[in-house]
Amino acid sequence: MFDQSKVLLGIAPIAWTNDDLPELGGENTFEQCVSEMALAGFRGSEVGNKYPKEPAVLKKALALRNIRIASAWFSAFLTTKPYEETAAAFKQHRDFLHAMGAKVIVVAEQGHSIQGQMNTPVFDAKPVFTAAEWEKLARGLENLGRLAAEKGMKIVYHHHMGTGVQTTGEMERLMTLTDPDLVSLLFDTGHLVFSGEDPEYILRKYAARIRHVHLKDVRRDVLARVKAEKMSFLQAVKAGAFTVPGDGMIDYGPLFKVLAESGYEGWFVVEAEQDPAVANPLEYAIKARQYIKEKTGL
């Protein structure tokens, strides 16, 4: 179904230690995390807060385990702060990822975001950008895309729950406002389904712009609770809303089929933030790896 030389499998460290909720997995070390990634059969990782910040040190630790860096999250504040502040932080982030051999940079706009607020209902209080903010976001992202291109890299925009780019309409607006050569898209199955969107629609419409994929599943019963009890995004995570592909409500068969037909090249990154005390990270990493192999042959 996929060319194994062009589609690579990674997993995010957020299953071992949650950067937004330090109490989840605070006891798990960087060494345990990357060792178990390798043991489960993954060859790539995104970057967590416990990872060494010095490229040479990180490269050595990863090389021992045959792990590569796929990308890392970057928080942009293009709608709420001067562009220069975001650009300065982005260059530093870009240069680190370039040194690690990554080809894409995950960017998410955090201006007005509620995703990190513990008591703000994720569905009821979602931010909505003004026309002026949309313009700032679009032009700012294009400029970040140009900065990435200086190193032969691409930015991939991460639509996300609790932010101004979450829904189908918001994703369509961003894609319309931005140059495809400068702004690519990260396709995250979990955030789309959690939000109530149709992931296959997004996938078919923007296949040519998708350069990074996050594989995250959703537990239907927990999602119902999140809505009924007006939980925040972080409360939803702690309640177990997310899990690995094949363990939730998402039918990945049609999605993998469209990705294969579109000639997707890049990383598939399992990103399923759970409480590691409840969902053993190695156990769930192995479960995800087996499911992906069954569905894709990778």
From TrEMBL:
Q: Which reaction does it catalyse?
A: scyllo-inosose = 3D-3,5/4-trihydroxycyclohexane-1,2-dione + H2O
Q: Which SUPFAM superfamilies match?
A: Xylose isomerase-like
Which metal ions or organic cofactors does this protein require, according to UniProt?
A: Co(2+); Mn(2+); glutathione
Which InterPro entries does the UniProt entry name for this protein? IolE, IolE/MocC, IolE/XylAMocC-like, Xyl_isomerase-like_sf, Xyl_isomerase-like_TIM-brl
Q: Does the keyword Transcription apply?
A: no
Q: Which keywords does this Swiss-Prot/TrEMBL entry list?
A: Cobalt, Lyase, Manganese
Protein name as it appears in the record: Inosose dehydratase
Origin species, per record, is Lucifera butyrica
The upper taxonomy is:
Bacteria, Bacillati, Bacillota, Negativicutes, Veillonellales
The gene behind this protein is: iolE
